[in-house]
């Protein structure tokens, strides 16, 4: 299995320098070579695609910004009937307004906080009542809504762990359960947006990692259960695209850091010290400025999962550095991968 998983991308290696670092301080070292023709994992062929035209309905959560916003527009351009769930539609958020300004019958924004069961149920009703024949169901659900934060385990409050899980994990579970009756009727698709951090952990990212590992486990269980019913479940694991979305902002990082420091127990504050704390915040700022600025690989991966006759189980839209790091961290013994990337 290991050979099979490595063979597709590795078969396309030799040619160009690849650098790597421990990810936290931003320094990079040369590791191996890959060819100029190496096709990024997020780029897929579209052979045997299902036909999106014919009012195939898809609901995407978290469309106020980032991947969700771009995806809603992209799926609309491909002919889908798109329901764009927006957290702040009722508050007149710019993202929802811009989607509404397209004034298309096939792109409808819906107020949707995935943490609120009543809003999720209302969204199901909006979709159901818009379908020509609700008994034929809806084609796709993309669980994209998410939030993130950072901080060592000892810096992170229980409240923060719960807040992130409420959106990323329980929001995904809640929304999926509510839409499944419609998806099952169409033998459709569930696409869950996880992260490379749902496959490999990273220091100072435990509140986020545990929710994305949970999304991966949930997706696997659901895929096994749905297989006999004809529903396909896919996971998309983006790398670092923070520079291209609203997951973090410079002000956001500072606000999180200030709140975290203010609320730290005295013993933690004293033992780690402000210098160490500030260095970790600076490392996070560097990470957030270093990602890809083009979200096309992510949008293409999600589109493939929704349209290919035989979609992949997992998609890895990420650059070579993160792809290789993920392979090493998930397939080599911890004693080795820890030495390469963590220690
Ligand atoms: N960007 C990356 O590098 C990256 C990498 C791996 C995975 N991801 C994942 O990709 C997904 C999209 O993130 P993004 O990078 O596009 O960030 P983003 O621009 O912040 O998009 C996330 C969206 O989710 C919305 N949201 C937050 N809480 C919500 C809730 N309770 N209910 C419904 N919607 C909610 C946000 O609304 P507001 O804007 O109104 O807050 C925002 O529109 C997330 O699941 C994230 O974990 C991102």
TrEMBL record:
Belongs to the short-chain dehydrogenases/reductases (SDR) family. The keyword Membrane applies. The keyword Oxidoreductase applies. One of its GO terms (molecular function) is 3-hydroxybutyrate dehydrogenase activity. Keywords: Allosteric enzyme, Lipid metabolism, Membrane, Mitochondrion, Mitochondrion inner membrane, NAD, Oxidoreductase, Transit peptide. It is found in: Mitochondrion inner membrane; Mitochondrion matrix. Its main location: mitochondrion. GO terms for biological process: steroid metabolic process. It comes from Myotis lucifugus (Little brown bat). InterPro entries: NAD(P)-bd_dom_sf, Sc_DH/Rdtase_CS, SDR_fam. Homotetramer. This is D-beta-hydroxybutyrate dehydrogenase, mitochondrial. GO terms for cellular component: mitochondrial inner membrane; mitochondrial matrix. Its EC number is 1.1.1.30. It catalyses: (R)-3-hydroxybutanoate + NAD(+) = acetoacetate + NADH + H(+).
């Amino acid at each position: 299995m290991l050979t099979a998983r490595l063979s597709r991308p590795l078969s396309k290696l030799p040619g160009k320098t690849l650098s790597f670092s421990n990810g936290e301080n931003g320094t990079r070292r040369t590791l191996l070579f890959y060819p100029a023709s190496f096709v990024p994992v997020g780029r897929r062929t579209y052979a045997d695609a299902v036909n999106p035209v014919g009012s195939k309905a898809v609901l995407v959560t978290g469309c106020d910004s980032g991947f969700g916003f771009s995806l809603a527009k992209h799926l609309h351009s491909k002919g889908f009937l798109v329901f764009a769930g927006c957290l702040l539609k009722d508050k007149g958020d710019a993202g929802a307004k811009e989607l509404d300004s397209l004034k298309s019958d096939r792109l409808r924004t819906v107020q949707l906080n995935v943490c609120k069961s009543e809003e999720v149920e209302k969204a199901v009703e909006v979709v159901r009542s818009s379908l020509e024949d609700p008994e034929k169901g809806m084609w796709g659900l993309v669980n994209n809504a998410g939030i993130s934060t950072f901080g060592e385990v000892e810096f992170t409050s229980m409240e923060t762990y719960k807040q992130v899980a409420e959106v990323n994990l329980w929001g995904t579970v809640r929304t999926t359960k509510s839409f499944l009756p419609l998806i099952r009727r169409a033998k459709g698709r569930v696409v869950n947006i996880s992260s490379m951090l749902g496959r490999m952990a990273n220091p100072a990212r435990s509140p986020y990692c545990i929710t994305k590992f949970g999304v991966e486990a949930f997706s696997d269980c659901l895929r096994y259960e749905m297989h006999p019913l004809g529903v396909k479940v896919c996971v998309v694991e983006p790398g670092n695209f923070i520079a291209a979305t609203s997951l973090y902002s410079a002000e956001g990082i500072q606000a999180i850091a200030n709140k975290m420091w203010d609320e730290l127990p005295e013993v933690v504050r004293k033992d780690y010290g402000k210098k160490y704390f500030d260095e970790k915040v600076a490392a996070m700022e560097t990470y957030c400025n270093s990602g890809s600025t083009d979200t096309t690989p992510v949008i293409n991966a999600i589109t493939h999962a929704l349209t290919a006759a035989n979609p992949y189980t997992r998609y890895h839209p990420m650059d070579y550095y993160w792809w290789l790091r993920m392979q090493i961290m998930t397939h080599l013994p911890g004693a080795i991968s820890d030495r390469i990337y963590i220690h």
